[in-house]
Amino acid sequence: MDEIILASKSKVRLEILSKNNIKCVPEPSNVDEDEIKNSMLKDGAHPEDVSINLAQLKANKISQKNSNKIVIGADSVIDLNKKIISKPKDRNEALEILKKLNGKSHYLISSVCISKNGSMIWKHTDKAKLTMKKMSDDELKLYLSKIDDEKLFAYNVYQIEGEGKNLFSNIEGDVDTIMGLPIKKIKEYLVNLK
User: Considering 2, 49, 75, 148, which one is annotated as catalytic?
Assistant: First the structure.
């Protein structure tokens, strides 16, 4: 198969693809996610719609510049009671997000879109349900003190493959989906594309 482009600078998504023997070249889309997200939410969009739309926009944007190449776009959102929890802008906001999730269940929705010649040719959305332990403010602050800025601001408030797994009493769903890329379905699609 020809080289595949990942419309993202996500190291985690690249790692997942690489572990699954899918060679990808990263090319960030630089889509203004916050602007699109806010606009869609004002119109009453469901978090799942926001996730799939952002994945599609990213893939299509890069696909328009790379004719006949397969481009993968992906997006993940945290859905707490049908409201999106966005990535924190600073450590205080990160603590506030953890307090909102504290002791509750939420969904992590990951969508992926594959585009070619500027149009979507395939899409898939998966979600996982995560239940956070009830923790004290001090425990939450201790957790945050163990996470470096790059990880905290890139992957929202938890990384399931690292310290983040200690926040949860229950996780239902695929770990790759939680990490941002439902790889099993992507592999199935790419195999059939050959």
Answer: 75
